[in-house]
Amino acid sequence: MITQQPSGAVAQTGDLVTMSVVATGTGSLGYQWYKDGQPLADGNGYSGATSPALSIYPVQALSAGDYHAMITMNVG
User: Fold this and answer.
1) What pTM was computed for the model?
2) For the chain, which residues make up each domain, given as ranges?
3) Which residue blocks in the chain are alpha helix, DSSP H?
4) Mean pLDDT, rounded, for 44-67
5) Bridge partner list, 29
6) What confidence tens digit (pLDDT) does each residue in 47-56 have?
7) What's 2-74's CATH class?
8) d(CA 52, CA 6)
9) What is the pLDDT of residues 31-43, one digit of tens each?
10) How is the chain split among helix, strand and coil, in percent rounded to 5?
């Protein structure tokens, strides 16, 4: 269950932006962040693409978009 949704952010070029999601469940939780429907990977200004918190640094014009996190639960 997601207990805290990520919130929107407004940033300027060169800023650091961090978005986070909080979830609970049994078993181990897996995280994947998406931008405009495409899965993100660490690198190219992104850090934490598969963790509860995604950081974008440095923010660039191309950083603008719709971000969301998908959470999966492995209960064996």
Assistant:
1) 0.90
2) 2-74
3) none
4) 95
5) 73
6) 999 999 999 9
7) mainly beta
8) 10
9) 999 999 999 999 9
10) 5, 45, 50
